[in-house]
Each structure stands twice: as structure tokens, then as C-alpha cells.
């Protein structure tokens, strides 16, 4: 691995982490027709829909694929680039090999690693034919002169060099391999889910450095104030009680239940409706055939008094006029709250965020107003009420503290973002002495060369034959856990963990 300056390593990796953990993209503008694309095969256009290209690369009110959509993070902003074939401000100077390197290797034309806000960790599985089709489509677009300042992160988070480290820890390039024991439809669904559709980019939880927790694939993850629900098909997941046809109908909006998508899934839903019935059925087939996993221990329920006294009256005064006494709403006017995935998710974040932020109009559906003026307690009571009424059986886990935290997130207060998942480390990889030493260092802003050599020596003695990636990942995970115990916020957790990574890398390079 290339030697990296300490500050570059910390700052670039930190900026990467917040991009992975904290993306909040505005709703994309409708792409509309593109005259130059009219002669291109429908396959290329379809691939761009399945891959979700327009959602990021078309800014609200902007020209198709001309970039400019701003992705907000607690540490700054990143804008999606112009991918039209304009030679000056787009990718008109790219070759097919450059395009493939971006998708499969996470490398830009300059050879530098890309932020995984562009989901190359999934696109790496694309077939040659699909890359060819997508490349042909992108080349056929009308060139648009639109210079985009992509990296808007402040110093020191604007340095990209140490994305090499993140890729070493979390990125495994490789093409999708069909399972010969499964049907053609199942494999098509797996390909769409993992490669083109990159469902796990939102629905898989991540550790504090933004690395996906592969042992918990599709088990749900928080994205800013929203929550991408558990779609792992284990007991308690939002799709567990649906059959393949029901899930397919939920994906394309034909289930007839008057349900609505929330958060960034609203944008995804627009793309899903343009996909073929066969592909949506394949995705549903794959997701419903996931291996059995243990059910999560239910979160402790809020005391009944917090849901009960006066909450029905609160619903009647604030919600019933649109959503009805039975919670089923009015088709085309107000969505049903009964059996809705966003309502039944194992976490209450989506209901709380909708109450705080409201929802803009969609088709014939009107505006869902914001109830931000309500107290944190009343928002929590309403969330618990709709999640546990009319046959809904989601756990009543909303409380005033969570509402307060999400209220601050929507106010763009990064201090509200507490430490996310820390990497899981097998119990046998660290003894009490190593954990105690890490606990001492968890309060240090930096780790000295002598201290890191001591940590590495202790780890290597306990784990003979472990790779350098294992050492970095495990020690980083252990450090993350110890920093979280101090009550530090997410940014501190990330920076302390990165300090350790930096010291480990410097020790490795010195050796």
C-alpha cells in the first residue's frame, strides 16, 4: 500500500465515513425525454433506471444526468458530477475502460479512489454486457456544459488519499457469480439486488467507519433521520409476513393497500415502477428466499401510559381528518397507515421523521403537513399510537429522547448523531488486558508510535497469522467500542478510530 501522510489519512477517511453514514439526497427532478437518447437501445436506458443513475446525477430542475445534486453530510457537502458526454465538464474525455474502472474498481479517470457515495461496491458485480449497455447509453446523452464542484467538504475532510485505506478494509472487487443450485429467476433477483439495484447500500447497517456489516445484510440501517427497514426476511422483518407476490406488489405500488413510500425510498419507488414485472418478481423471489436468521430481541416497549391517556384524542385532532378513524386514509388523497412498511419497521424513525418534516405532494396525494410544533412527548405518543393500532403490531419504542435527537438531526446539528455501529470483534481476539489498554487510549486525541506497537504486539500474540487487514479492522472495532463507552459523539468516535488506523499504517510503512 502507498505510504500516506498522517493528516491525509485521517481527514480523507473521515470525510468518506460521513458520506457513507450520513447521506441525505434531495428528491431528484424528473429526467424527461432526451432527444439524443432516442436512437439508443432500450436496454441501456433500462439499465440506467435499474442502477438508479438519474436519482443522483440529475439535480432538481436540472438537465438529465448533468449532475449537481447535493448530498448533505454532518461534515459538509458532496455534489454528484456531470456524467453527460460534455468534453469539458462531463465525461466526454473518458474511455470505456475509464468508465469500467469507476464502476468496478472505484477509481476516477485520474486513478484516485472514489467516495463510495457512488455505489461501486455494488456495481463491481456488473456484467460486461451491462457495463457496455450503460456506457453506450451515457455516451448517447445530450452533452450539457455544467461544471460541478463535486467535493465541497471543508478541510481537512476534502482530501481523498486515504480512501485507499477504506477500500482495503471494506471493498472486494469482483463480478457477480450465479448460484448453480438456484433458478434463473432467483439469480436474476440476486444480481439486481446486489449489483445494479444495490439495496444493501441503504438497508445494511454500517460500522462507525462506514463499512457494511456483512453478517447483518439487509437488517435495516439508519440514514440521517430516516430508517431503511429490515428486509432480511427473518422473523420480525418488514417483509417476513409477505409472500413473493405481495412483496412484488409493494415494490411496484400495485398492492392496492393505499400505501406510500417515505424518505429516499420515494425516489427509488419511481424507478421501480419503470422496471419490468419479471425483474421485480425476481427481486421479490430472491429476498423471500434468504437463509433463516435468528429474530432480534424485541426492543423494550414504552410504558402503556405514554401511548394511552389522551393519545387517541391527539390522533383524532391532528391526523384523523386525512387518515381516518381506521387509519386507512383515502386512496389518492392520504396514505393508509395500516400495514405500511414505514410504519411497521422495527425502528420508529420514519414515522417520527414524517411527523417532524411532513411529506411533499406526490401524484394526486396532497401535502402531509409537519407537526414540528408538537412537543417531543406528543410526537412520540402519536408514533407509538399509529404503530400499534388497527392491527399494526410494531413495538412501541418511540420516546421523547429519540424525537429530540431526530429533531436535531433534521435541524442539521451533527452533535445529535451519536456513534453508529462499531465493527463486531470475535470475543477470542482480545483479552481483558488488551481491552483495558484500548480503554485507556480511547480518551487520547492521538496514539503514539510506542503505544500502537504495544497494541499491535498484544493483538498479534493473541491472533498469530492474522492479516494486517484483520489487525486494523479488529483493533479499530475495539477502539470504537471503547470510545463509545465514553459518551463521545459520532465525529469523535470516527476520528479516534482513524487516529489508530493512521498510527497502525505508519507503523506498517515504517516496518
TrEMBL record:
InterPro entries: Cyt_c-like_dom, Cyt_c-like_dom_sf, Cytochrome_c-type_DH. Residues 1-29 form the signal peptide. It holds the Pfam family Cytochrome_CBB3. PROSITE patterns: CYTC (PS51007). The keyword Signal applies. Keywords: Heme, Iron, Metal-binding, Signal. It comes from the Bacteria. GO terms for molecular function: electron transfer activity; heme binding; metal ion binding. Residues 39-142, 184-291, 305-390 form the Cytochrome c domain. The keyword Signal applies. PANTHER family: ALCOHOL DEHYDROGENASE CYTOCHROME C SUBUNIT, BLL4482 PROTEIN-RELATED. This is Cytochrome c domain-containing protein. The lineage of its organism: Bacteria, Pseudomonadati, Pseudomonadota, Alphaproteobacteria, Hyphomicrobiales.
